[in-house]
Amino acid sequence: MFDIAWSEMLLIGGVALVVIGPKELPGALRTAGQAIGKIRRMAAEFQGQFNDAMREAELTDLKKQVDDIGNSIQASTNFDPIEPMKDFGATDASKPAAADDKAMKDAEATLAALPAPELPAPVSIEPAPVAEPAPEEKPKRRRKTVATEEPAVPTEIAAEEPAAKPARKRKAKAAEAEGGETA
Fold first, then answer.
1. Biased composition, Basic and acidic residues: where in the chain (predicted)?
2. How far is CA 151 from CA 155, 156, 165, in A?
């Protein structure tokens, strides 16, 4: 801030300790800190007021430029929005009503002269035939057949595959009902 080196700060601290004394030094530093804080706040406030004045001056200039542009546009168009409204304030009420009646009759005559619109021929839309879905056939189950002979499998593949379990024999229910013997 003030470009003071550490050695210079130590020298100032030593002189302050000798001149002020160790008892009053904390109070003196506190007072100096408060004074520096007040100076900083005053500087910030001054800077804020200066910036506000600059913005205000810029806004005034900008407003003046916008008004000049608006005036030049209005002067170039020569449009008076009040002029069309003066006709409605006329004291003679028959003139606007007569003009309206004439305009209405002209519009009706123009519409009567136009040919009547022709209606298009009626269109009949028939529904498209819907094809019935073919019944789905369920795939038939194949029965497992018990091979009585061993299929011709190379010995290399037969050694790798485990042997299939033999089919279980079913018990005859009739044999059980008669004597309770099983086959």
1. 98-108
2. 11, 14, 15
36-66 tens-digit pLDDT: 999 999 999 999 999 998 888 888 888 888 8
Report how many domains make up the chain.
Answer: 1
For residue 25, the tally of other CB atoms under 10 A from its CB is 14
Please check whether residue 125 lies inside any domain of the structure: no
157's tokens: 């593949």
Domain that holds residue 101: 1-105
Domain assignment present for 157? no
Q: Long-range contact list for 40-45, CB < 8 A, 24+ apart? A: none
DSSP assignment of 154-181: -HHHHHHSPPPPPPPPPPPHHHHHHT--
